[in-house]
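> example.struct
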């Protein structure tokens, strides 16, 4: 398999010990998203107002809500980030993230950024650990991976 072979789509997979319903709650709730994704990620009228540690903000419209199965939102640059969950048959979940429509100039950074977000999700949902530093002076822009 070639690494990220589709220039129009970023795809990552992640195996989690938590159930699809538990993972979905992390993605689809304000408190869940704040545990791994952004300092704040509050939903208002079908859109999420993300606030990141460096003060950057993004408002993304929620496109799909299928509890314990799929959650999709318009993300940075107008891309479509979709999280699809499948039961792994052993009490856990297989998650597939796709991000379609990432501007070519941002592609390399977004590929790496999703790894950071997904590993923070795994740490939070499976182990109750927040990997982020929550320090505005130590963000992605300064080369820190812990968002």
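> example.seq
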């Amino acid at each position: 398999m070639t690494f990220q072979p589709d220039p129009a789509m970023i795809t990552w997979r992640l195996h989690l010990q938590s159930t699809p319903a538990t993972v979905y709650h992390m993605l689809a709730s304000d408190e869940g998203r704040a545990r791994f994704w952004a300092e704040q990620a509050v939903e208002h009228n079908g859109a999420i107002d993300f606030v990141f540690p460096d003060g950057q903000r993004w408002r993304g419209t929620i496109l799909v809500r299928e509890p314990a199965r799929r959650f999709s939102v318009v993300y940075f640059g107008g891309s479509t980030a979709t999280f699809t969950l499948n039961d792994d048959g052993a009490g856990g979940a297989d998650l597939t993230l796709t991000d379609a429509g990432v501007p070519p100039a941002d592609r390399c950074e977004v590929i790496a950024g999703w790894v950071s977000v997904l590993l923070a999700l795994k740490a939070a949902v499976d182990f109750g650990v927040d990997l982020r530093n929550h320090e505005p002076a130590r963000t992605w822009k300064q080369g820190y991976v812990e968002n």
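> remarks
The chain has three helices and seven strands.
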